[in-house]
Amino acid sequence: MTDTRPTQSTPGLQAVAPGLPGRPWISQDWLDVVFVHWRVDLSAVAPLLPAGTRPDTMALDGTDDGVTTWVGLIAFRFEDTRFPPLGALGRTGSIGDFVEVNVRVYTVDEQGQHGVVFLSLDAGKLLPTLGARVATGLPYWWADAESRSGDGRVGYAMRRHGTHLRSLVDVRVGDELAEPSALETFLTARWGMHVHRAGRTRFWPNEHDAWPLHRASVVSLRDDLVGAAGLPFGLTELEPDSVLYSPGVTTRFGRGR
Q1: Structure-derived torsion over alpha carbons of residues 90, 92, 93, 97, reported in degrees to the nearest 10
Q2: 18/205 Cα distance (integer angstroms)
Q3: Does position 237 have pLDDT exceeding 90, yes or no?
Q4: What does the angle CA 161 – CA 165 – CA 170 come to, to the nearest 5 degrees?
Q5: pLDDT per residue over 12-24, tens digit each?
Q6: For the residues 219-224, what does the mean pLDDT come to?
Q7: 3-state secondary structure the chain
Q8: Which of 131, 255, 249 is nearest to 193 (CA)?
Q9: Is 1's pLDDT higher than 60?
Q10: Predicted confidence band of residue 8 (pLDDT cuts 50, 70, 90)
Q11: CB-side exposure of 166: number of CA atoms within 13 Å?
């Protein structure tokens, strides 16, 4: 694929978080993160979004063409989940360590806040799955999930309990990026999520250090989750338009507003 890396930053999106408007209520380490993305037409995403939001757009060349939006299949390891307001009692220990694979799309709301909408999140432990569903209203599912790494590769495999839905992604990690392009910033530096719950759409802000990003390439990919989330079937059979890897960051979330 032709390298179309622009040099400018994405308008309205920066690689560095703006900071939380208040004390974080939860903190988590996101490790060995694999980002796989496909570009799609707005019509594939718009019907799936909560009220008050619309698809966020960016073309492959880093310009906002108003036509292209993106679907992400993201896999990583959660570790050291903690609730800072509770002090030492807020550490979850190994209960909060698990693998997650999620399907997400990109949004902007009427206030101009850029975020993500999670269409599904599959987690490898039951208690965090139930807790996250109750606390946030996000569409978490319990799954068998595992990760593996070595020889310059990182892979994830999961199967959602009670279904035949599976996802397997294996990538080879390449060179570290000295500076992310506008598109790479758009796909990774998302400082909040839009969540619809009890008839209202809230924006939950987050912050973390700038992503240390690497180029990556797909070794193997088989996925049912994207189609099950209401997106075009067969999308994950196409070659991804962007594949990235990060060793990880520590993320903190603020209260929804």
Answers
A1: -140
A2: 10
A3: yes
A4: 110
A5: 578 888 888 888 8
A6: 98
A7: CCCCCCCCCCCCCCCCCCCCCCCCCEEEEEEEEEEEEEEEEHHHHHHHCCCCEEECCCCCCCCCCCCEEEEEEEEEEEEEEECHHHHHHHECHHHHCEEEEEEEEEEEECCCCEEEEEEEEEECCHHHHHHHHHHHCCCEEEEEEEEEEECCEEEEEEEECCCCCEEEEEEEEEEECCCCCHHHHHHHCCCEEEEEECCEEEEEEEECCCCCCEEEEEEEEEECHHHHCCCCCCHHHCCCCEEEEEEEEEEEECCCC
A8: 255
A9: no
A10: very low
A11: 8
Q: Which two tokens stand for residue 50?
A: 């909560």
Q: Residue type at 245?
A: Y
Tokens of 89: 């009692």
Question: How distant is the alpha carbon of residue 122 from its chain centre?
Answer: 12
Q: Which amino acid is at 146?
A: E
